[in-house]
């Protein structure tokens, strides 16, 4: 058979537009393709045991950086509300460290405030709407999952007890429905006070359509110690948008999950921390167990493009473009690595994890802790003195980024999924990777020209839309 060639790094310079901020990125990867038709597998079975040690850790560092993609929800306010101070008071309450810590315990979403990680987080909430003010009503839309509705209801009930002159009407709806509701209210010149907890992608439609109010981030968070990488996202909003229009509220961040028992059985004593090490370990595991042991979210829909976004940024790319140098090198690497993918990768989606315990794969790159209860799964931190939550905190402190909240993110996801299917699922030739990605770039530019205008399409082609950096 043709032996796979180890990925090698080469040096070069690449400019990435991060909204209005340009940073110089160096060191991109270059990889040689594998011959799938001649790849031979052995038949040694994966070990089966009910005592497998399952670990979670921050994952590998790319050729350019080790930053992590932020998932989860942001909190925002609809513009035009008659009593914005009442809305701000609700937001300040929901962002309080004690509320954040309780939220993590009930929902799995980790806090954005350092104070929430202490044994006794502050319960002090900034005073924005005085008790002497007239009674106001605030509508609170949230796209949080159905399983968490009772918890949110309890939080709101406690808020109303603490602020009897603010009545809150809670509405649990999908992010898409929320966008429709807000759009209808604003275009109808409504003066309702509306606060929303909405997926970080869906907020883009509301922002770019001008439906969000500028908010005072410092007053709402009251300087309680927001994690610096999160706070920096606010600074970028001010730089690019002229103000802060949404705050990161419910954080979900990708981590790597491993069956450490299976790794040890193959002679691997440490989890991989670079992509080169991951590639080497993937081959070792495949040789030992006779089947691919690396799993990814290849289900399609929003799952696969989100996974690829993480990888492309770590390779120095701008995923929105599909085909800059970093994007290409990321897909070349994944093409090689996919020879060692678990068969489960084609069906894995949000909250996929059972294969770790049932021995159908031993590494999950990446998964989202907010999707499942890791304690019930028996997941432990690879750094034994830490908690799983602190692993997430370590990932955030290492640097974060958000996907550009463009209103056409859905089309981008569709096209990125097509690129994945052509390159990985259908195993197109290695040499065709740049042209496949270039084709999706052209398709999105054409879509923007047709459905928006030529100016938006030109801005896209010039790299205006890119990851929002948080470091």
Question: How would you describe this structure to a colleague?
Answer:
By secondary structure, the protein is an alpha/beta fold. The chain has two domains: 32-69 and 254-469, Periplasmic binding protein-like II (D-Maltodextrin-Binding Protein, domain 2), CATH 3.40.190; 71-252, D-Maltodextrin-Binding Protein, domain 2. The protein has helices at residues 84-94, 97-107, 149-162, 175-187, 203-208, 217-221, 228-241, 260-265, 275-289, 303-314, 325-337, 354-358, 374-377, 388-397, 409-425, 433-451, 454-461; strands spanning 8-18, 21-30, 54-57, 68-69, 71-77, 136-142, 166-172, 193-199, 247-252, 255-259, 294-295, 363-367, 380-381, 400-402, 468-469. It has a five-stranded mixed sheet. Helix 10 (303-314) crosses helix 11 and helix 10 (303-314) packs across helix 15 (409-425). The chain is globular and about 70 Å long. The model is unreliable at 1-50 (pLDDT under 50). Keywords: Membrane, Transmembrane, Transmembrane helix, Transport. This is CUT1 family ABC transporter substrate-binding component.
């Amino acid at each position: 058979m043709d032996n796979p060639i180890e990925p090698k790094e080469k040096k070069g310079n690449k400019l990435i537009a991060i909204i209005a901020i340009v940073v110089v990125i160096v060191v991109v990867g270059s990889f040689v393709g594998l011959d799938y038709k001649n790849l031979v597998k052995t038949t040694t079975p994966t070990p089966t045991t009910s005592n497998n040690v399952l670990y979670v850790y921050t994952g590998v560092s790319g050729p350019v950086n080790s930053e992590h993609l932020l998932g989860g929800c942001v909190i925002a306010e609809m513009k035009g509300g008659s009593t914005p101070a009442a809305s701000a008071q609700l937001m300040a309450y929901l962002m309080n460290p004690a509320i954040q810590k309780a939220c993590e315990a009930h929902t799995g979403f980790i806090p954005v405030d350092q104070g929430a990680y202490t044994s006794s987080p502050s319960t002090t909430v900034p005073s924005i709407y005085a008790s002497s003010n007239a009674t106001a009503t605030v509508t609170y839309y949230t796209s949080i999952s159905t399983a968490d509705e009772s918890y949110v209801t309890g939080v709101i009930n406690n808020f109303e007890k603490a602020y009897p002159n603010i009545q809150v009407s809670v509405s649990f709806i999908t992010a898409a429905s929320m966008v429709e509701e807000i759009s209808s209210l604003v275009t109808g010149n409504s003066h309702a006070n509306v606060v929303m907890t909405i997926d970080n992608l869906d907020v883009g439609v509301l922002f770019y359509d001008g439906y969000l109010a500028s908010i005072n981030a410092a007053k709402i968070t009251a300087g309680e110690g927001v994690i610096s990488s999160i706070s920096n996202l606010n600074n970028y909003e001010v730089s690019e948008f002229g103000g802060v229009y949404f705050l990161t509220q419910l954080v979900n961040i990708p981590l790597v999950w491993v069956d450490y028992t299976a790794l040890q059985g193959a002679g691997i004593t440490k989890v991989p921390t670079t992509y080169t090490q991951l590639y080497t370990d993937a081959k070792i595991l495949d040789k030992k167990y006779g089947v691919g042991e690396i799993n990814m979210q290849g289900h399609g829909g929003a799952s696969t493009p989100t996974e690829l976004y993480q990888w492309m940024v770590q390779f120095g790319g701008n995923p929105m473009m599909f085909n800059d140098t970093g994007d290409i090198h990321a897909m070349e690497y994944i093409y090689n690595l996919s020879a060692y993918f678990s068969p489960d990768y084609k069906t894995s989606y949000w909250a996929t994890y059972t294969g770790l315990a049932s021995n159908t794969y031993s590494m999950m790159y990446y998964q989202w802790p907010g999707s499942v209860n890791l304690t019930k799964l028996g997941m432990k931190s690879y750094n034994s003195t830490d908690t799983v939550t602190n692993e997430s905190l370590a990932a955030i402190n290492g640097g974060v980024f958000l996907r550009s909240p463009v209103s056409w993110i859905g089309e981008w996801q569709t096209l990125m999924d097509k690129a994945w299917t052509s390159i990985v699922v259908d195993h197109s030739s290695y040499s065709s990777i740049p042209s496949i990605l270039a084709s999706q770039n052209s398709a999105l530019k054409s879509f923007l020209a047709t459905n928006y205008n030529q100016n938006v399409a030109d801005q896209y082609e010039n790299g205006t839309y890119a990851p929002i950096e948080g470091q």
